[in-house]
Amino acid sequence: PGQAISIENSYAKLDCSQTTASGSGNTLTVRWAITFKSTFTGTKNTYLGVRDDSGLLSQAKKGTWTITN
Which terminal residue of the chain has fewer beta carbons within 10 Å of its beta carbon, N or C? Predict the structure, then answer.
């Protein structure tokens, strides 16, 4: 975050200069500056995954959202 670069693929573009991350206690907030391309529209699933220092992984579907142009 904060770097003057963009990362993109055929679905979306991430503007790192406009992306921010902040922490308070054990809460991390990331505000992504993403522009979706027309090839990435419709209903999408959102997943959350975490891994601890010993390599234990936990993943879960957390919701859905719809991308429109």
Answer: C
Across-strand partners of 14?
Answer: 7, 34
- In this structure, what is the dihedral angle of CA atoms 18, 20, 68, 44, given to the nearest 10 degrees? 140
Q: Pick from 59, 30, 61: which is nearest to 43 by CA?
A: 61
DSSP-assigned letters across all residues of the chain:
---S-EEE-SSEEEEGGG-EEEEETTEEEEE--EEE-TTS-EEEEEEEEEE-TT--EEEEEEEEEEE--
| pTM for the whole structure | 0.62
